[in-house]
Design a protein that fits this description.
The complex is a heterodimer.
Chain A: E1 5-14, E2 17-27, E3 32-36, H1 43-50, E4 60-68, E5 71-72, H2 79-85, E6 86-89, H3 101-111, H4 117-130, H5 134-137, H6 151-163, E7 169-173, H7 181-194, E8 199-203, H8 207-213, E9 216-221, E10 224-230, H9 231-236, H10 241-247
Parallel strand pairs in A: 3-8, 3-9, 6-7, 7-8
Antiparallel strand pairs in A: 1-2, 1-4, 4-5, 9-10
Chain B: H1 19-30, H2 41-48, H3 53-84, H4 86-92, E1 102-103, E2 108-109, H5 112-143, H6 146-161, H7 164-191, H8 206-230, H9 234-241, H10 247-276, H11 279-284, H12 302-309, H13 316-348
Antiparallel strand pairs in B: 1-2
Helix pairs in contact in B: 1-2, 3-13, 4-13, 5-8, 5-10, 6-8, 8-10, 9-10, 10-13, 12-13
Classes of the chains: A alpha/beta, B mainly alpha.
């Protein structure tokens, strides 16, 4: 089961660029939340602040409060602990090329010193099944490198890798933008299935994708969150003129 | 809902799993059938792990010590060199570096001929080795049939593994006669007018030493250059080819241009080896502290005078002079490296910033 995320007065900078300006937002638990907006609007920076990945860039910094359930992720825990609880899937599939498919999926647990074979086997199988990849790879789990799969399979393997540590939140930064339509629809089906068990935050350029998978949608523009509401409302009856312009394709 | 309070400090070395880990794993295994509502075994396990703060700080501290040890070693060597050469430092001061006398009998010492010999042999060796090494690297990465690649790479790297005294022996028995009987006369006949190939040709001298140095630094430069060129992504080659480039244009724009900083780095490494190379040079350079325009003339380098005369150095002044020669070699290496780095900086400063 996932937890909700409560963001208050979140500001982020890259060097002197004020990338995120006073973001306030409640992301409900066990739902999918989509973030849309033109390139460079800050939506990727926003999700990277949710697992403290933003601060790995030496010139980046962030202020404000992000609460996962009762846990203030910038005060109560180290980035390492946060990232054990928040999974992330990146824009381009990033399998570990020197590891087998099995080791790729098990890597999160193994690097934390988890050694129980039976639970590892079971977790790898369950994660690959959740990621709808099990049937395609079950015969070469330990024979094939993670990098030998196709792009869409690699991305589903990366999702399985994120799921294997049983996260409470799953962040997805344009997970399907490098994939073909068939792989994209597989990933979307996946998000649809997973959102009852995890809190999912998905950044996307594709507005149909947001409409298909997410209950709630936030619209970002120039580092600010213009509007946040139910996806239905955003796409049928937005409050803000800028949101309407964007979703009707007048800019962006 | 709160996870069990168990703290495990991770050992700094991850290949040595700490004992408590097994205990937790057993605990997790025992609680696979977690009651409804409780965190899953995997979540319990992960939350029971420490924040990693102590391990990360220990790791950073150990790495810092490793980095600082480099400074400590350099300082230590420098101190010893200065302390042991204080006799000649007191006698000649900075003029030691600019005096060309070398007379152990009357106690008159200067490092200039050796500095000249070191710089001249190294730069000549670079001039010969760099084009050849680049050619080898370009051939290996871009043109070579797949089947030949491994054997040629292997032989190139084999060259790097030969001890320098063996190169010296080969030079004495093969290179010196060639220089004396065929290459030398040829050069003085056709290029004698330049003034660089004049005087009596013994077969040993500046040019012979430079040739053997060039052969010795060739594998280092070519194998590093090859690795760097292999690291240039195929997409860069394809981007240039798709613009209608010939193979040579593709290599120049798509490969060499991207790899140039690494190639300069490889050349600097080769130069470093040439500056300090001792044994093979000592065997063929003629060991005479002269500054001559002719490349046939016997000369001497900083490294080879130490090797050649250290065992027979009688008297404190003589010994002190040789140790100060070592200090001079140290300084020459630093200055040459600094110049090379400044060159790289000057070349790359105007180029657009690269992502990542």
């Amino acid at each position: 089961m996932g937890v909700g995320i409560n963001v208050e007065h979140l500001n982020a900078w890259y060097g002197t660029t004020h990338t995120l300006q006073d973001i306030n937002l409640n992301i409900p638990a066990n739902h999918a939340t989509a973030l849309i907006g033109p390139s460079g609007c800050g939506k990727s920076t926003f999700v990277r602040c949710l697992n403290r990945m933003h601060e790995t860039n030496p010139i980046a910094r962030a202020t404000g409060t992000v609460k996962m359930g009762d846990l203030d992720i910038y005060k109560d825990a180290s980035p390492v602990e946060i990232r054990r609880r928040v999974g992330m899937v990146f824009q381009r599939p990033n399998p570990f090329p020197t590891m087998s498919i099995y080791d790729n999926v098990a890597s999160g647990l193994k690097l934390n010193g988890f050694r129980n074979r039976a639970i590892l086997d079971e977790t790898v199988e369950r994660s690959l099944k959740s990621a709808a990849l099990w049937e395609e790879v079950k015969d070469d789990l330990k024979k094939k490198s993670g990098a030998s799969l196709s792009g869409g399979q690699q991305q589903r393997m990366c999702i399985a890798r994120a799921l294997a540590v049983d996260p409470e939140v799953l962040l997805m930064d344009e997970p399907a933008s490098a994939l073909d339509p068939v792989s994209t629809s597989k990933i979307e089906d996946l998000i649809f299935q997973l959102k009852s068990q995890y809190t999912i935050v998905i950044v996307t350029h594709n507005m149909q994708q947001a409409a298909r998978v997410a209950e709630n949608t936030g619209f970002f523009l120039n580092g600010k969150m213009v509007e946040f509401d139910s996806t239905h409302k955003i796409f049928t009856n937005p409050k803000d003129k800028r949101t309407e312009d964007y979703i009707t394709g007048r800019f962006g | 809902m709160t996870p069990p309070q168990m703290t495990i400090e991770r050992e700094p070395n991850p290949s040595m799993p700490a004992k408590p880990l097994t205990a937790v794993t057993n605990f997790v295994a025992a609680s696979v059938a977690a009651p409804e509502g409780a965190p899953s075994p995997i979540r319990q396990f992960l939350r029971a792990r420490g924040s990693g703060g102590v391990a990360d700080k220990t790791f950073a501290a150990v790495m810092l010590v490793c980095a600082l040890s480099i400074f400590a070693i350099v300082l230590f060597i420098l101190t010893i060199l200065i302390a042991r050469s204080k006799l000649t430092i007191a006698q000649f001061g900075f003029h030691f570096l600019t005096r060309s006398a070398w007379d152990p009998v009357s106690g008159d010492f200067g490092a200039l001929p050796f500095i000249f010999g070191t710089l001249a042999t190294s730069l000549l060796a670079l001039a010969m080795a760099v084009p050849l090494a680049l050619g080898v690297a370009v051939f290996l990465t871009e043109l070579c049939p797949q089947k030949l690649r491994a054997p040629i790479s292997f032989v190139t790297e084999l060259l790097a593994a030969i001890p320098s005294v063996v190169y010296g022996l080969w030079a004495v028995f093969v290179l010196v006669p060639i220089m004396r009987d065929s290459l030398g006369p040829f050069l003085s006949k056709y290029l004698g007018w330049t003034g660089f190939f004049e005087g009596y040709n013994f077969g040993v001298g500046l040019l012979t030493a430079s040739i053997i140095l060039a052969i010795m630094i060739l594998p280092i430069i070519s194998s590093i250059t090859r690795d760097i060129m292999l690291a240039v992504p195929t997409s860069q080659r394809e981007a240039v080819l798709a613009l209608g480039a010939t193979r040579w244009e593709m290599i120049r724009t798509g490969v060499l241009r991207n790899a140039r900083i690494g190639i300069v780095g490889a050349i600097i490494l080769g130069l470093g080896r040439a500056l300090g190379e001792t044994m093979a040079v000592t065997m063929v350079i003629g060991n005479h502290p002269d500054i001559s325009k002719s490349l046939f003339a016997p000369a001497n380098t900083l490294a080879s005078v130490i090797a050649g005369e250290f065992s027979e150095a009688t008297g404190d002044m003589y010994l002190s002079a040789l140790i100060e020669i070592g200090l001079a070699l140290f300084l020459v290496t630093i200055v040459v490296n600094a110049i090379a780095r400044a060159l790289v900086w000057a070349v790359t400063r105007g180029t657009p910033a690269r992502a990542n």
